[in-house]
Design goal:
Elements (H helix, E strand, L loop, with lengths): L3 H9 L12 H9 L2 E5 L8 E2 L5 E2 L1 H14 L5 E5 L5 H6 L5 E2 L7 H6 L2 E3 L4 E3 L1 E6 L14 E5 L3 H12 L5 E5 L2 H9 L5 E5 H11 L6 E3 L7 E3 L2 E3 L3 H20 L6 H4 L5 H7 L16 H8 L3 H8 L29
Parallel strand pairs: 1-4, 1-5, 9-10, 9-11
Antiparallel strand pairs: 2-3, 6-14, 7-13, 8-11, 8-12
Bound molecules: glutathione.
Glutathione binds next to α6, α7, β11 and β13.
Length: 341
């Protein structure tokens, strides 16, 4: 048995280049259950919603599917647990879910005080305001004294209070825990303004208002909302797997590997593609408690990041979102993956 000092000397000398694969309790339990328990939105079209057939779809749902494809070999082996904002961290802390994939903002207190951990940002967002056109408001600066609908247990609530205080304006929050109630409050006029992350405003305008064209999102974006999956602290192998699933999807987009061409790409000689897909002697899965083909399965069964974005929230969907900050770094966006090597 090497003691710590000796181990560091050995590592520094480059005599031992890797440590043994990390064991993951979460992975063990998932294998036993045969499914990944994934915390998702209660009903937010484009991100996470169950259809009348009970089938879950959405951008975040595809993250759950990608994790299941990597961890269990089958994107369908997911148990979806719908959670509102206030319930989500307790569900993770208690072990009810293995991962939370539900527009959750990475903040310092959430990362360091809740026994939870963040690693990937799968959607760069920011908080905005949705208003009926009939209000004839063009800027958030005109919202003095407004009634504003907001969901509790969110960063949204806090940013709202900071923004109005900073701009020396008053407002009346109309708060509810359940998204359905927040939406009903807005649609039934109990508030004039709806505030949340801009992506969620686009989803709500498209799917939950009578006439989407009667509503506009104001130009001000008042916060940074880096949204990403959350895992429990203390199971690094699992947390790293969840993070690297996102990086694999970004890497695939960078390399032009899609769900449609991934089988051909397996014989491509580009070493980056070989590492992503676990070809040749490459096995980057082992160190995250997995096998060499984890990346291949993610792309084959779910797709690369761009495919998932366009499928659920892109220009051809009711949400009509631009890639914006979620474009690849090579296209002027913020989505960037560290190299697989
Ligand atoms: N990103 C923010 C807000 C996330 C959030 O919960 N947004 C609401 C927008 S209304 C939502 O998506 N609710 C969906 C639900 O409760 O199912 C956070 O992490 O606190």
């Amino acid at each position: 048995m090497l003691n710590k000092k000796l181990l560091s000397i050995v590592l520094a000398a480059g005599l031992v280049s890797t440590l043994p694969a990390m064991a993951s309790k979460t992975m063990e339990s998932i294998k036993k259950k045969g499914e990944v328990s994934c915390g998702v939105n209660t009903a937010l079209a484009g991100f996470g919603i169950a259809g009348s057939d009970g089938k879950w779809t959405g951008f975040d749902v595809d993250y759950c599917r990608a994790i299941a494809a990597a961890a269990l070999g089958d994107a369908n082996k997911v148990r979806y647990v719908p959670l509102n904002a206030s319930q989500r961290f307790t569900a993770l802390q208690s072990g009810e879910i293995d991962v939370l994939a539900r527009n959750t903002t990475w903040t310092m207190s959430r990362d360091t005080q809740l026994g939870t951990t963040f690693g990937a940002t799968n959607f760069f967002d920011g908080q905005g305001f949705l208003v009926p056109k009939s209000l004839k408001v063009k800027s958030a600066k005109q919202l003095k004294g407004a009634t504003i609908c907001v969901q509790s247990g969110t960063t949204t609530e806090k940013n709202l209070s900071d923004y109005f205080r900073m701009n020396k304006m008053t407002y009346k929050p109309v708060v509810a825990e359940d998204l359905k109630i927040v939406i009903a409050n807005y649609n039934e006029g109990r508030c004039k303004v709806f505030t949340s992350d801009a992506s969620q405003l686009a989803a709500i305008r498209a799917n939950d208002t009578k006439q989407p064209d009667d509503h506009i999102i104001l130009p001000e974006i008042i916060s940074k909302e880096p949204l990403g999956p959350v895992t429990r602290q203390g199971d690094e192998a699992w947390s790293k797997l969840v993070t690297w699933v996102h990086f694999a999807m970004i890497t695939a987009e960078e390399l032009g590997v899609t769900s449609a061409n991934v089988d051909q790409m397996r014989s491509d000689t580009n070493p980056e593609i070989q590492r992503l897909l676990g070809q040749g002697n490459n096995d980057f899965g082992k160190s995250i408690g997995n096998d060499a083909q984890w990346g291949y399965r993610v792309i084959k069964q779910v797709g690369n990041y761009g495919e998932v974005f366009e499928r659920h929230v892109g220009k051809k969907t009711p949400l009509k979102l631009d890639r914006g900050q979620n474009a690849l770094w090579t296209n002027g966006g913020l989505q960037y993956a560290p190299p697989i090597r």
